[in-house]
């Protein structure tokens, strides 16, 4: 699975009647909606804590609503006040419900007089699921501590009490205090010249859903990459990062030419320490990114095309429910491909499409039927379960199929119109379909039937009309791999000197699940894959070598797993190791050492992999 193979925390089956809205949130948006958030926070590194106040501006919908219900997780609530127009505070009664493992704790505030603003004073837990706190020793430059948030899917509630549902959008501003010498950034406009005086202010004038709320702080330097883009990173990383991401401005221009103006002002990038659990996160104005994509040859910068693409698909037009997340990730993966094609050519774009399509073809039939659907039966999957390869790769495959059937110029015009039509809104799959029918399917009759559209959106598996691009180079690699596996082509005779990153990934991806040990040893002797600086190659190589029983790679695999907390690159190695009792014992040793440097989300996923394996070996 491309991204979150590991984030299956078990399905979240909620009683339908309990929630009229998003089943992953306690909020009741038909009663009251937050329209603005005003944050006043202090970053307390020694205690790994944010302290302060969140003031919510409210739009009361139901005249009889007695309560304001908010999402929280592990927050220490100090007090709740109603704030009058002249700023006077009146305490409000409130109750924090018992913590639900997935949803956290409901905060019910009694507010029958419908105050225009409510202020919650609180502090976060050092174990907040949406924050990671790093000591100076855990950073690249060892000088200052570092902290960052990851709110998607439902972790904003662990650092701000709010209505934590993508259906609800709000503007925000923030005042953040930090130790002197620290730079604070947020998912809002950031000023590269801001003095590091411990006193930062932010303003996000566009309405965003809670999962796009973000903050980071540390020893962060800035390097300009264009008139409206810059790279933020630790001082020893920022130069390399600015070089790797020097095409950012061209990416923005390309996306604008296709889908209309970039509406967010600036597009900056923050390169995080390697413990960041994802490849990238599309926080508005400031994408957060893993340093594992900095390999020196720009071969992994599609992650940036992807996060930038979210400025249209996701941040501008958002899925209203996690069940509809393919509207974010599938559309974005499609747009990502278009940016890659325009900047790096068809060969690169087609190779990236084929890599994920082949992986999906291999995995989709093994998934539970409901998980194979772009729009699963409503309310039957949890926030994290909804984010699978299906959302990304089946979703983008559907859009490529539409493009192919209707022609690029018609489809491009359609998609631009779609983004304009739904701009700044959160929508469901059904709203998307209601727009698709008159504006594309019926407008150009005879190209695609409505039944075929429904098969893509509500059906299992992959429809027969799913088209794939050609890649003569991948075809050649298939032939070489087959000959190598058959023993007719020795490893050192492979044409691999000419392979780019994607071609290496393709060669490795399609090795058998447990290749013969002698073949893996031959491969390593010829191409020195153990210790590779490219973590995408490393993840695939170590997984296969471990599955083949090659213990010689264990120490290098352990270094990879300890250094990198990105789920997609690290969890597969735990999964490969825990298949045998000796591997499980080794994985437990690795985790004992790595744990302190992992993000809470990574800890949670590794622990569930280890627990499942222990139960299986018992
Ligand atoms: N929005 C996602 C990251 C995400 C999804 C975080 C769900 C938490 C829950 C982001 O845009 C993304 O898809 N990142 C990918 C990059 C990619 C597919 C090119 C990643 O992190 O690997
Ligand atoms: Zn994405």
Largest sheet: 7 strands, mixed
**CATH topology category name of the domain at 319-458:** Neutral Protease, domain 2
Mean pLDDT: 95
How many runs of DSSP E, i.e. beta strands?
A: 21
The poorly predicted ranges are 1-19
What share of residues is helical?
25-40%
Spatial extent as radius of gyration: 24 Å
Principal-axes geometry comes out as globular
Count helical runs. Answer: 17
The first-to-last residue Cα distance is 27 Å
Q: What is the fourth-level CATH superfamily of the domain at 319-458? A: Neutral Protease Domain 2
Say which molecules are bound, naming each kind only once: ligand BES, zinc ion
Strand portion: 15-25%
The SS-based structural class is: alpha+beta
| CATH architecture call of the domain at 319-458 | Orthogonal Bundle
What are the SSEs and their pairings?
Blueprint: E1 32-44, E2 49-60, E3 67-72, E4 76-83, E5 89-91, E6 94-96, E7 105-110, E8 117-123, E9 131-134, E10 146-149, E11 169-177, E12 183-186, E13 199-209, E14 215-218, E15 221-226, E16 229-233, H1 235-244, H2 248-259, E17 268-271, E18 280-281, E19 286-289, H3 302-309, E20 317-319, H4 326-344, H5 346-363, H6 389-406, H7 408-421, E21 425-427, H8 429-441, H9 450-458, H10 472-486, H11 501-509, H12 517-527, H13 535-547, H14 554-563, H15 567-577, H16 581-594, H17 600-617
Parallel strand pairs: 1-11, 16-17, 17-19, 20-21
Antiparallel strand pairs: 1-2, 2-8, 3-7, 4-5, 4-8, 6-7, 9-10, 10-14, 11-13, 12-14, 15-16, 18-19
The protein binds ligand BES and zinc ion.
């Amino acid at each position: 699975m491309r991204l979150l193979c590991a984030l299956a925390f078990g399905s979240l089956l909620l009683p339908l009647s309990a929630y009229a809205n998003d089943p992953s949130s306690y909020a009741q948006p038909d009663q009251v909606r937050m329209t603005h958030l005003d944050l006043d926070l202090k970053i307390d590194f020694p205690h790994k804590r944010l302290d302060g106040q969140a003031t919510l501006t409210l739009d009361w919908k139901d005249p009889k609503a007695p309560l304001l219900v908010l999402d929280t997780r592990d927050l220490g609530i100090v007090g709740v006040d109603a704030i009058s127009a002249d700023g006077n505070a009146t305490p409000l009664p409130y109750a924090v419900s018992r913590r639900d493992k997935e949803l956290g704790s409901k905060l019910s505030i009694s507010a029958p007089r419908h105050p225009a603003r409510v202020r919650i004073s609180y502090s976060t837990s050092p174990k907040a699921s949406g924050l990671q706190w790093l000591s100076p020793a855990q950073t690249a430059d060892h000088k200052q501590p570092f902290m960052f948030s990851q709110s998607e899917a439902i972790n904003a509630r662990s650092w701000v009490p709010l209505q934590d549902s993508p259906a609800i959008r709000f503007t925000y501003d923030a005042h953040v205090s930090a130790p002197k010498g620290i730079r604070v950034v947020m998912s809002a406009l950031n000023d590269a010249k801001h003095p590091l005086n411990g006193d930062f202010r932010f303003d996000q004038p566009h309405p965003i859903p809670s999962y796009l709320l973000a903050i980071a702080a540390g020893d962060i330097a800035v390097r300009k990459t264009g008139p409206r883009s810059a790279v933020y990173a630790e001082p020893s990383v920022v130069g390399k990062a600015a070089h790797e991401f020097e095409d950012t401005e061209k990416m923005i221009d390309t996306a604008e030419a296709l889908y209309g103006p970039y509406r967010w002002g600036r597009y900056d990038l923050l390169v995080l320490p390697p413990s960041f659990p994802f490849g990238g996160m599309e926080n508005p104005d400031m994408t957060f990114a893993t340093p594992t994509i900095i390999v020196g040859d720009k071969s992994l910068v599609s992650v940036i095309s992807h996060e930038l693409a979210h400025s249209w698909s996701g941040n501008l037009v958002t899925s209203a429910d996690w069940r509809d997340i393919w509207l974010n990730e599938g559309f974005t993966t499609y747009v990502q491909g278009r940016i890659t094609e325009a900047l790096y050519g068809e060969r690169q774009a087609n190779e990236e499409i084929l890599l994920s399509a082949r992986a999906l073809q291999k995995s989709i039939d093994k998934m539970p039927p409901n998980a194979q659907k772009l729009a699963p039966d409503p309310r039957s999957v949890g926030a994290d379960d909804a984010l699978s390869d299906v959302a990304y790769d089946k979703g983008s495959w559907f859009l490529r199929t539409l493009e192919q059937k209707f022609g690029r110029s018609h489809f491009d015009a359609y998609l631009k119109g779609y983004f304009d039509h739904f701009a700044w809104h959160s929508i469901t799959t059904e709203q998307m379909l209601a727009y698709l029918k008159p504006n594309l399917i019926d407008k150009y009759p005879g190209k695609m039937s409505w039944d075929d559209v429904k098969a893509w959106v509500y059906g299992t598996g992959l429809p027969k009309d799913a088209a794939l691009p050609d890649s003569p180079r991948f075809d050649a690699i298939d032939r070489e791999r087959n000959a190598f596996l058959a023993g007719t082509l020795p490893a050192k005779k492979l044409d691999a000197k000419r392979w780019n990153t994607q071609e290496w990934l393709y060669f490795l991806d399609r090795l058998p699940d447990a290749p013969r040990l002698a073949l893996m040893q031959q491969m390593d002797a010829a191409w020195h894959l153990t210790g590779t600086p490219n973590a995408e190659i490393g993840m695939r190589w170590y997984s296969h070598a471990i599955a083949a029983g090659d213990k010689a790679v264990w120490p290098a695999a352990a270094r990879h797993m300890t250094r990198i907390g990105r789920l997609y690159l690290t969890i597969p190695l735990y999964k490969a190791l825990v298949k045998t009792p000796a591997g499980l014992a080794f994985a437990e040793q690795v985790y004992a050492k790595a744990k302190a440097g992992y993000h809470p989300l990574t800890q949670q996923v590794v622990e569930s992999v280890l627990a499942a394996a222990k139960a299986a070996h018992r």
